[in-house]
Specification:
Layout lengths: L11 E5 L28 H14 L4 E5 L9 H9 L6 E6 L4 H11 L3 E5 L5 H8 L4 H13 L5 E5 L10 H11 L2 E5 L18 H9 L4 E3 L11 E5 L5 E5 L12 E4 L4 E3 L8 E2 H6 L4 H13 L19 H4 L2
Helix pairs in contact: 2-3, 3-5
């Protein structure tokens, strides 16, 4: 098992398949983009599947989420999903995506064995979308959501980040939209993971602010806290339920004590925390001929050193060198 010194066990594996993305969201990267990983440094499909298989069979991982960058840009994605679904025991398989291309790929991915999707959607206004993402692709995202629903990739979760002065007035419209379409909305506090290192606490829309804006229009009540487990989102029932909305207060309401996640970057580095400043290189060990047992031992050691929390409030906190697109969500 992947256990740390604080007794937490990592069972949720986030696997980045690429650092590339077809949007330029301002809380992630600059409009001109970034220097992408050279192809030889990126794990091959077989290398990805060797590590995922090892994690599931030998290290206790029960959920695999493929991320990026934008994972739909990975040409072999459907085959990766299919081979993941063939593992025994079979993990839950999910995907975090910006939704562009999902209109074409939702059905093949569902057929391959994908269970559900998380789709990023920060605004319902085309102009605001262009301002945030520097691309005119809102229609593509909405089409992707419809295709995911038609393919049975449920529940469909919507991830939204509110930016002060840009889309912070859209909390209520976003929730209305998700309630009308049967999507599960989760607001996420903006985190210090942008490539520009421009994040400030003062500009961040906090969980409390989000809830205040929603409470002005909706009757919200906290869901049973005992059922939250290791889930990052605090859930609030809307109008008494069963509809609900989630708020992920990564900065102001950290949930590190119950964290069960471990991350694998597109170039084969283990990160035991989203905000880790150290990584463990599994790619080079594999390419040098390491056995599965040796790779597993390296992975266990990487998780063992996980810190108690992300430390954003600590004066010594340093933002990771890699931005979110290069880490994987």
């Amino acid at each position: 098992m992947l256990v740390d010194t604080f007794g937490r066990t990592a069972t949720d594996l986030r696997v980045s398949l690429t650092d590339r993305c077809n949007l330029r969201c301002s809380y992630c990267m600059p409009p001109e983009g970034l220097d992408w990983l050279p192809k030889p440094e990126v794990l091959t499909d077989d290398e990805v599947l060797r590590l995922v298989g090892l994690a599931v069979r030998d290290l206790g991982v029960t959920e695999v989420r493929y991320t990026g960058g934008e994972p739909l840009l990975r040409r072999g994605l459907a085959e990766i999903v299919r081979r993941t679904a063939e593992l025994s025991p079979r993990p839950e398989i999910s995907l975090t995506t910006n939704g562009i291309g999902l209109d074409r790929l939702a059905a093949p991915l569902a057929e391959a064995g994908l269970d559900r999707v998380n789709v990023s959607l920060d605004t319902l206004d085309a102009g605001t979308f262009r301002r945030l993402a520097h691309r005119d692709r809102l229609g593509d995202v909405l089409a992707g959501l419809e295709a995911a629903r038609a393919a049975g990739l449920a529940p469909i979760k919507i991830n939204a980040v509110l930016m002060r002065g840009i889309n912070d007035h859209e909390a209520v419209p976003l929730l209305r939209f998700c309630l009308e379409h049967g999507y599960r909305l989760r607001f996420i506090e903006q985190m210090p993971l942008d490539a520009q290192h421009g994040w400030t606490r003062e500009n961040m829309i906090t969980a409390d602010e989000i809830l205040d804006r929603l409470a002005a229009e909706f009757d919200l009540a906290p869901a049973d806290a005992a059922r939250r487990g290791s889930a990052p989102a605090e859930t609030f029932l809307v109008g008494g339920g069963p509809d609900a909305v989630g708020v992920i207060g990564s900065v102001t309401r950290p949930f590190c004590g119950a964290c069960d996640r471990v991350r694998l970057t597109a170039d084969g580095q283990v990160r035991n925390c989203l905000f880790a400043t150290e990584e463990s290189n599994l790619r080079d060990a594999m390419r040098a001929g390491a056995t599965d047992a040796e790779v597993a031992d390296r992975w266990r050691k990487a998780v063992w050193t996980k810190r108690a929390g992300h430390g954003i409030d600590d004066p010594s906190f340093l933002q990771p060198a890699r931005p979110m697109s290069a880490i994987g969500g």
